[in-house]
Amino acid sequence: MLFVGDDWAEDHHDVELMDATGRRLAKARLPEGVEGAARLHAMIGAQLGDADRVGVDDAGQVKIGIETDRGPWVQALIAAGYTVYAVNPLQAARYRQRLAVSGAKSDAADAHMLADMVRTDSHQLRPVAGDSAEAEAVKVVTRMHKTLIWERTRAGQRLRHALREYFPAALVAFTDLDAVDTLTLLARAPDPASAARLSLAQISAALKQAHRRDIAAKATAIQAALRAEYLGQPAVVTTAYAASARALVALLVTLNEQVNTLQRQVEAHFGRHPDAEIILSQPGLGVTLGARVLAEFGDDHDRYTTAKARKNYAATSPITRASGKKKTITARFVHNDRLIDALMTQAFTSLRASPGARGYYDQQRARGASYRTALRQLANRLVGILHGCLKTGTVYNETTAWSHHLNHTTA
């Protein structure tokens, strides 16, 4: 068995090869890309007795530790047949303290540490999942889609803050700052004086473009709010703020367009995935949330051996800390933000879509659980149901999903 530590940087990899006794066999600094991968492959082949190539059986004898689970380099290692362990940087930092309490750190030392880590503790690490290319494509578009939504929220908050400083009437007139009609009117009139001159026809045209209802009444209310008296800033300051607001409006328009474009990509890629039907059958999961759940869990059905393993990865299951007579149960605060966000949203949405989910949530609340705690417990239960459906290849069934819980509570 051969153990490899790979300390990855932006443009190079420090690698060390180690045998089962912990003896260093070779080390090198390799460039990123095809050349570096070829040199690593040759180094491994030299240690296995064939400097030119590594057979499938030989590749299975190689374990590699690296602090990332994605990218062309990792995919190349997996394609070569090596067992790759994505070591969490926090785990690596804790393990480093076992070897050197001084706090000393270098890329070469980290490569040695990672090789030693997979040599001694690979049974405690999770190999990089063998997700399909289709799942990886779903992950790429869903992550960027969600990132742009977060960026849109940040830009909207910046715009709201700016308007509060110089144009409070706009906050009264417009409720959704990233809506099409709001952005159209703010782009045309980004300051109080020009906004007060907007006619009902101009406001109505923007509302019609956004497909609003009751246009006449809404246009009248917006015009009245924009013409009301509010405290303001000096003219030169207002001009500066208006320029800033116009830039944020243009940014929000672009973000809206790209979010919609990526939404179509999410739907297209997710719709072609073989697990889409099972995931969409789950209560509270539509195309967008379903795609995010698939992207963050991956589609390797062997990655999570049990429902508990999937729940632990999702961070919906609690953590128990027991020492002496003291025992505490807390939520997991270290988690995949994108996954937990999707799962908690699913749990909330399922309250209306599933009588079983609603009943389970109400029971947790009746036991004294807070809103957030009860919702997280429901999300944990839904993860277990999804795991069972994916393992058996069956779609969600309301009666089957909640029968065990109902029988248990009735007994």
Q: Mean pLDDT, as a whole number? A: 89
Beta-strand residue percentage: 5-15%
Sheet with most strands: strand arrangement: 3-2-1-4-5
Oligomer: single chain
Share of helix, binned: 55-70%
How are helices and strands ordered from N to C? Answer: EEEHHEHEHHHHHHHHHHHHEEHHHH
Number of extended strands: 7
Provide a count of the helices: 19
Name the shape in a single word: globular
Sheet having the most strands? 5 strands, mixed
Report Rg: 28 Å
Distance between the first and last residues' Cα: 53 Å
Structure classification: alpha/beta
Low-confidence stretches: none
Structure, described:
The chain has 411 residues and is of the alpha/beta class. The chain is 62% helix and 10% strand. The protein is built from 19 helices and seven strands. The chain has helices at residues 34-48, 56-59, 72-79, 89-99, 107-121, 133-166, 168-173, 180-188, 192-196, 200-209, 215-227, 235-271, 276-280, 287-297, 307-314, 337-353, 355-366, 371-392, 398-410; strands spanning 2-8, 12-18, 24-31, 62-66, 83-86, 319-323, 326-330. It has a five-stranded mixed beta sheet with strand order 3-2-1-4-5. It has a two-stranded antiparallel sheet with strand order 6-7. Helix 16 (337-353) crosses helix 18 and helix 17 (355-366) runs antiparallel to helix 18. The protein is globular and about 80 Å long. The two termini are 53 Å apart. The model has no long low-confidence stretch (mean pLDDT 89).
